[in-house]
Design the sequence.
């Protein structure tokens, strides 16, 4: 994948792994459009430090694919099913992919299941010619497993019935505001995300945490400390971004508890790094 201009406002220090549409154009021209079957893209790269490209990036990629007759594959394995405040990020960005890859929250993790959705254009390609030859010979041991499918259907019914996408959008506004209460900590670098998925980037440079052997090690300490205080998080690439992705049914009081624990953990981290919280902050 091409490296893109993914630093700057909104990207923080960790999100350097997505590429702008212009980079893709250059790559396609270099390879020759006839040699490029598809572009695969993660529209909300949570595992890559919660890097969220602007809507215009995905829209430009769609236009680029249409221009060159290339298929657009959007991987919503992690971003799909309401977490962004819409059922899919594609919907939020008003982009229709040719393939949509789904898993994880398809069953909210209650059953292992994944799915690939395809556009009519892809179906039509298989439906050309003699109908008796139109068989897509493809299978896995557990393809279409009825129990996993039943669980996924029930999960989707609940997400829709309880309007969890709307809820994630509303709670996301509150969550963003609550996280901004942490800004006064010297170790705070950035909080970025949407709906109920946020990345809290801390420390900023290895030099600041030199006594600990670098920023990653200091963040590992904090991760353990937060767990002891009652908050389970993951540290994402490059080891200094904390993933905050609570259940979609979280309440405001529970968000407050999360932020209070983060506040305490950050105070301890800052004290250990030898900083002082700005008076009155
Ligand atoms: C965007 C994305 N795609 C794919 C995967 C991996 O999915 P699987 O473990 O089902 O192969 C992940 C894992 O987090 C992911 O974030």
Sequence:
């Amino acid at each position: 994948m091409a490296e893109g201009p993914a630093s700057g406002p909104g990207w923080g220090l960790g999100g350097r792994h997505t590429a702008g549409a212009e980079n893709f154009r250059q790559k396609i021209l270099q390879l020759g459009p006839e040699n490029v079957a598809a572009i695969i893209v993660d529209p909300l790269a949570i595992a890559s430090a919660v890097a969220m490209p602007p809507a215009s990036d995905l829209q430009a990629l769609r236009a680029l694919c249409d221009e060159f007759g290339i298929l657009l594959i959007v991987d919503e394995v992690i971003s799909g099913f309401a977490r962004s405040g819409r059922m899919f990020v594609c919907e939020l960005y008003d982009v229709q992919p040719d393939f949509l890859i789904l898993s994880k929250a398809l069953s909210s993790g209650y059953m292992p299941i994944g799915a690939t959705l395809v556009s009519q254009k892809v179906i039509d390609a298989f439906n050309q010619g003699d109908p008796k030859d139109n068989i897509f010979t493809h299978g896995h041991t557990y393809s279409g497993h009825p129990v996993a499918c039943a669980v996924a259907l029930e999960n989707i019914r609940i997400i829709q019935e309880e309007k969890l996408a709307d809820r994630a959008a509303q709670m996301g506004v509150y969550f963003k505001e609550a996280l901004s209460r942490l800004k006064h900590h010297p170790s705070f670098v950035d909080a970025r995300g949407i709906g109920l998925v946020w990345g809290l980037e801390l420390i900023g440079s290895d030099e600041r945490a030199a006594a600990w052997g670098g920023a990653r090690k200091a963040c590992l300490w904090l991760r353990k400390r937060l767990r002891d205080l009652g908050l389970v998080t993951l540290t994402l690439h490059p080891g200094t971004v904390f993933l905050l992705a609570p259940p979609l049914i979280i309440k405001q009081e529970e968000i407050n508890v999360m932020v209070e624990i983060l506040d305490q953990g950050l105070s301890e981290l800052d004290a250990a790094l030898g900083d002082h919280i700005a008076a009155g902050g």
User: Anything to note?
Assistant: The pocket of pyridoxal-5'-phosphate is lined by residues 42, 46-47, 75, 77-78, 103, 114 (CB under 6 Å). DSSP finds eight helices and eight strands in the chain. The longest strand covers residues 188-194. Strands lie at 38-41, 71-75, 99-102, 115-118, 188-194, 197-202, 234-236, 241-244.
